[in-house]
């Protein structure tokens, strides 16, 4: 039996191997990914972003446990962690997070390393989510690395984006500065037992009131104490409400088109970067570029333009 046969037969080991193949940019991905895409499209993806220390992991853990208890059995979790400077792997991992869920046969947890990606997600997060989707996961929870102002890729990767903030760090203002206001479907003020939580909820409600009027979605602000499980029921209800909102007859097609547009842009961006690295950024070429820049015979802009010109001259 091939890996794909085992994958579609429900083997978790095969799912793990397929994900590793995707992460490592293995051979024949150009044939594998279209197969997975053809079987995907049913899972609902929920993204969690926000600054480090906001309690995203705990919130994901509690929400996942709630879903499992509620009968939403096929659950995938992707936790994006910083890369180890030595191994390139995730610094944290599913061994130290969500340990109570890791033994559930209907829950599949995968930690991914950013490997230099700066959008809060790993380079292949979308493809790994697609693999979980094709495997039959009904709900997929994706937690970003928590890098603050650049983790906006999550909105393209997910159907509902939850921005998690904490009261004592002035995050209502940081949310505006970071652009998180643009990607959030739901705001969570976590660690709501701490001083300033009520004030922050009030501030956020005032800040986003105009956007509510423009979008038609309520953009709820939910106060939680994830470590104690408080507010998680309300968060789950708001996620369900947002899913119903974007699935209505007037919005479903628009949402689908936005996701296809984002997927196409992601695939093209990834493939173009890979093509440029393979053809123009091997070690010998890099050393030549550096030498020419150092001796003043060229500069980074001229070299980049020459590379792009070479690509443009290629016949389709």
Uncertain residue ranges:
84-91, 116-120
- End-to-end CA span: 37 Å
Proportion of strand residues: 5-15%
The structural domain count equals 2
What's the CATH topology label of the largest domain?
Rossmann fold
Q: Any idea of the CATH class of the largest domain?
A: Alpha Beta
Protein structure class:
alpha/beta
Number of helices: 15
Could you give the order of the helices and strands? HHHEHEHEHEHEHHEHHEHHHH
CATH architecture of the largest domain: 3-Layer(aba) Sandwich
**Rounded average pLDDT:** 84
CATH superfamily of the largest domain: P-loop containing nucleotide triphosphate hydrolases
Quick summary:
This protein is α/β, with parallel strands linked by helices.
Explain what this protein looks like in three dimensions:
The protein folds into 2 domains: 41-247, P-loop containing nucleotide triphosphate hydrolases (Rossmann fold, 3-Layer(aba) Sandwich), CATH 3.40.50.300; 263-313, no CATH class. The protein is built from 15 helices and 7 strands. Helix 2 (12-23) packs antiparallel against helix 6, helix 3 packs across helix 6 (125-135) and helix 4 (56-69) packs across helix 12 (232-246). It has helices spanning 3-8, 12-23, 29-39, 56-69, 99-102, 125-135, 154-157, 171-178, 180-183, 197-207, 209-215, 232-246, 252-280, 283-294, 300-313; strands at 44-49, 75-81, 107-113, 139-143, 160-165, 186-189, 221-223. The two termini are 37 Å apart. The chain has a 7-stranded parallel β-sheet, sandwiched between helices.
């Amino acid at each position: 039996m091939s890996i794909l046969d085992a994958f579609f037969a429900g083997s978790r080991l095969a799912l793990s191997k397929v994900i590793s193949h995707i992460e490592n940019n293995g051979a024949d991905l150009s044939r594998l990914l279209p197969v997975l895409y053809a079987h995907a499209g049913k899972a609902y993806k929920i993204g969690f972003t926000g600054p480090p220390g906001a309690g995203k992991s705990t919130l994901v853990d509690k929400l996942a446990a709630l879903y499992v208890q509620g009968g939403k059995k096929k659950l995938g979790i992707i936790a994006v962690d910083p890369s180890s400077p030595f191994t390139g792997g995730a610094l944290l991992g599913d061994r130290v997070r969500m340990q109570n869920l890791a033994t559930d046969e209907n829950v599949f947890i995968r930690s991914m390393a950013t490997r230099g990606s700066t959008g809060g997600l790993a380079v292949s997060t979308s493809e790994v989510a697609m693999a979980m989707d094709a495997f039959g996961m009904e709900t997929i929870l994706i937690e970003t690395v928590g890098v603050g102002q650049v983790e906006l890729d999550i909105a393209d990767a997910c159907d509902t984006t939850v921005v998690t903030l904490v009261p004592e760090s002035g995050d209502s203002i940081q949310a505006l500065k970071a652009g998180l206001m643009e990607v959030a479907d739901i705001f969570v003020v976590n660690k709501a037992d701490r001083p300033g939580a009520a004030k922050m909820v009030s501030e956020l409600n005032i800040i986003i009131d105009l956007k509510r009027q423009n979008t038609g979605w309520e953009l709820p602000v939910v106060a939680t104490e994830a470590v104690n499980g408080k507010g998680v029921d309300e968060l789950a209800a708001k996620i369900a409400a947002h899913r119903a909102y974007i699935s209505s007859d007037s919005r479903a097609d628009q949402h689908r088109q936005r996701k296809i547009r984002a997927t196409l842009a992601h695939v093209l961006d990834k493939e173009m970067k890979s093509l440029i690295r393979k053809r123009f950024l091997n070690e010998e070429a890099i050393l030549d570029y550096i030498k020419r820049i150092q001796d003043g015979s060229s500069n980074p802009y001229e070299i980049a333009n020459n590379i792009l010109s070479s690509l443009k001259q290629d016949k389709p």
